Predict the structure.
Amino acid sequence: MQLWVLGANGTYPTAGHPTAGFLLTHAETRVWMDTGSGTFNALCELMDPAEVDAIIVSHVHPDHSVDIFSLYHYLRFGSTPPAPIPLFAPEGVVDRIAVYLDAGSHLEEVFAPRPLEDSMVGPMSLRFGRADHPVPTLQVRVEAGSRSCVYSADTGTGSDLVVLAAGANTLLAEATFQGSDKPAPHHLTATEAGDIAHRAGVERLILTHLLPSLDPHQSIEEAAAVFGGDVMVAAPGLEVLI
């Protein structure tokens, strides 16, 4: 299984740095996880977006969802997929997308909303958890063969992420803040992300969703001090073999 980082900025994009978006691949199966601003163009550089096998939108906030609109228009008026693409999202998100687009029944021509239960996408299994965030937000564990990758989405410390991530090969965890400065309780600091990775016993920690103003090297140092394992920061173009 491979992880491609399409974008990883927290909250807002900057030049050359889209917000949250990741492509997970295994064999011929491709899952686009979070469709943040700028990630559609990044995905186009890797593949035809009509050929993704499933889409996960962790929550409705724009830095995780807004490029679903670009994908919708591409699928409806550009390259039509052979069948509607499975779409996993929290309750209410699909309805909001439909209202924003004034799409009506056309939305079902390109997306096939799926229930939030254990699912298979080709050889990849999906298991979902609930994040600690002000709006309904999904966390996800993706497994293929004997390998596993867990994504925290946006969360505070009040979720069951340690349980979902237990023994995973890679934990992709948000680390919006550094040090003890935590102005929003429903996000993690780098230290908190490292602590979760340590308690879950994961092999590798990839920090994402850093505020663009932060020094990523400091975030790595803070997470590594409590995790003790391999720590890196997600950046556009990063490719990781899970």
Observations:
- The longest strand covers residues 29-35.
- The first helix runs from residue 39 to 44.
- The mean pLDDT is 96.
